[in-house]
Amino acid sequence: MDKAVSSKSKASWAVPVVTIAVFLGFTVVGGIGYFEFSPPERTCVSCHEIRASHARWTNSVHRNVSCKKCHGGSADSLHALEENAKRVFFHVTAKRHDNLRLSEDQTLRMVRACQSCHAREFAHWQAGGHGTNYAAIFMDEKHNRIEQLNDECLRCHGMFFEGAMAELVAPLDVKGPWRFRRPGFENRPVTPCLACHELHAPGSPFRRDLAPPAALLSATNLPAFRRDTIAFYVRQEREHFAADDLSVPKVFDQGKAVKVSSDPRQRLCMQCHAPNAFGQAGSGDDRTPTGVHEGISCTACHRPHSNDPRGSCASCHPARSSCGRDVTQMDTTYRSRTSKNNIHRMRCLDCHPSGVPRKDAQAL
Predict the structure, then answer these.
(1) Contact at 8 Å (CB) between 171 and 178?
(2) Residue 308's closest CA among 117, 126, 138?
(3) N or C: which terminus of the chain has fewer CB atoms within 10 Å of its end residue's CB?
């Protein structure tokens, strides 16, 4: 009899539990379906913290790309639930609701989203110097023994890291050995796409037939259009600043002002590849061209994303130099990184202290 009562008791609560489970299942599926197929005005933008970002997106170059394409949809529902929970926490705890920004983890997700549409650009970036990772930069023993890591390093390397250098690497000295204080940071990119690109920047959706003409890539001509997607992310402000709005740095070589290209793209490069506080050419990580290449833009030689300068000489020196020699075979850092003649600062007198030789008629 006790067994019969027990069976009836289990049956009495089993039905409500199953009913509730089925109801929750339909609710979750229905909610995901609603989120996936409804316009963003009824989903994402229903949170007023996101309205400002949505307003910028409606006037941006990516306005034809769905929010879910970059930020995730129902196929990534667990992540969406986690992010929504964070937004609720932010809404309750924050005093301001107009400064919603991406975390570093979200920034890394954006890199993968960029790859899905910009495969060629992604491949070039990944193969170039800016595609390097945390381990290559912060675990470089040669550098760390010369210069101690500090918070200023994060201005250009790991600019989306949420914390100070002391929270990333230990110990902070020039002795080592060094290690990451947080696991899983070794392979993170230190210069992700969003370091130089603002995805909600205003403009028209990009079309291949509207690509800038080849003349705009020369050293003396400037872009005839403004593209705010090219922007530098300032870590301290947590904001992007369009390259066109950045100032042209003042650089001096032995007290003489250097002619610096006014190409907005070079202004962005010089935010990290900058001289010291006195603006001395060649100091710090400065790459401002002086000497025979003074005044030309970084982009005259370095390809976008890959930064590869190979083949660039031919754009200005089709076959021979002014003295009748193949410039690619001259002793410069273009041919060999170990050359003492840095291509950014070389002068004619560096190779010709007695004067520029006459052209070899047989070589022409």
Answers:
(1) yes
(2) 126
(3) N
Number of domains in the chain: 3
37: left (phi over 0), alpha (psi -120 to 50) or beta: alpha
CB neighbour burial string for 162-183, b if at least 16 within 10 angstroms, e if fewer: eeebeebbeeeeeeeebebeee
Is there a domain that residue 266 lies in? no
- Among 140, 167, 195, the domain-final residue is 195
Q: Can you tell me the distance from the alpha carbon of 324 to that of 313, in angstroms, rounded to the nearest whole number?
A: 14
Task: Tell whether 225 is covered by a domain.
Answer: no
17 in the same domain as 84:
yes
Range of the domain at 158: 121-195
In Å, what is the CA distance from 38 to each residue of 33, 85, 115, 304?
8, 20, 25, 37
The rounded average pLDDT for each run of 10 residues, N- to C-terminus, in the chain (364 residues) is: 52 65 61 61 71 87 85 61 70 70 85 91 94 96 95 94 95 96 93 94 74 47 69 93 92 95 93 93 93 92 91 80 79 89 88 72 46
- Containing H/E element for 253? strand 252-253
- In eight-state DSSP terms, residue 117 is H
